[in-house]
Specification:
Helix content: 10-25%
Number of strands: 14
Radius of gyration: 16 Å
Strand content: 15-25%
Number of helices: 6
Shape: globular
Strand order of the largest sheet: 4-11-10-8-12
Distance between the termini: 23 Å
Length: 202
């Protein structure tokens, strides 16, 4: 269960998120007060938000080969209102594990839901770190990188827990991380997060 949007706003303000989102603390609090539930989302970039995630004593990070993380924008499958806004009906999408994003997107849309964006996913982890569990993490397929020719990059952003191997480094073992997987690949430990809707505030 998430805390109320007003409590979420206080947490984001304590982390300085409002400054990166270009909104005054009082404005964010006032906007949050207009909603009773849902995930509060700001316009802060994923690169900034990722470093604010925590799991135990570990802080979050973006994988080294995703320097363009902030260029992964919301797709038509995830229409966004102006930030700040709240996201309702969050679901980690565990039932979609071992399916590819390509396979899952039509099912998510057919169910009347929308895939979560990367920024939304990181906000979720900021407010509820336990949403990331070993072997139960998730992709945010509502965010894609559009190439110059109009097609999408095959990478799809995801949130999971580092094993401290490879370029992550042993010092990052158990840290929450933003990474990517291929659009057509399956992973037994990654669901496809989605929501029932988004509501503007104010």
């Amino acid at each position: 269960m998430l805390p109320s949007p007003t409590v979420q706003a206080d947490r984001l303000i304590s982390l300085g998120v409002h400054e990166h989102a270009g909104i005054a603390a009082d404005q964010l609090r006032a906007a949050a007060a207009t909603s009773q539930d849902g995930l509060l989302v700001t316009a802060a970039p994923a690169s900034v938000l990722a470093a604010l995630m925590t799991r135990g004593e570990r802080t979050g990070f973006v994988v080294e080969d995703m320097t363009d993380v902030d260029s992964f924008d919301a797709t038509d499958a995830a229409p966004l209102p102006s930030a700040p806004y709240v996201v309702g009906g969050l679901d980690r999408g565990d039932e979609h594990a071992n399916r590819s994003p390509e396979e899952c997107l039509p099912k998510i849309l057919a169910a009347g839901r929308s895939p979560l964006t990367l920024v939304e996913g990181v906000h979720w982890v900021l407010q509820g770190p336990d949403v990331l569990e070993r072997n139960r993490c998730f992709m945010t397929i509502g965010s894609r990188l559009r190439k110059a020719n109009g097609t999408y990059d095959a990478r799809t952003p995801a949130l999971w827990i580092s094993n401290g191997t490879g370029r992550d480094g042993r010092e990052r073992k158990d840290a929450p991380k933003v990474g990517w997987c291929w659009w057509g690949n399956r992973h037994t430990w990654l669901g496809m997060a989605s929501c029932s809707g988004r509501t503007p505030l104010g």
